[in-house]
Amino acid sequence: MKFVGNVHLVRGSALALPELMSLLAAAGIETQANPDIDVRTYPQFLVEDARALTERALTRSVSGGRRVFITIAANLTYEAQNTLLKTLEEAPGDALFFFIVPSPEMLLPTVRSRAQLLELSTDAHAGVVDLEVFLKATPAVRLDMLKPLLAKDEDDVRDISGIVIFLSSLERILAKRVSLGREGLEAVYRARAYIGDKGSLLKALLEQVALLTPRV
Question: Can you identify the CATH homologous superfamily of domain 7-125?
Answer without folding.
Answer: P-loop containing nucleotide triphosphate hydrolases (3.40.50.300)
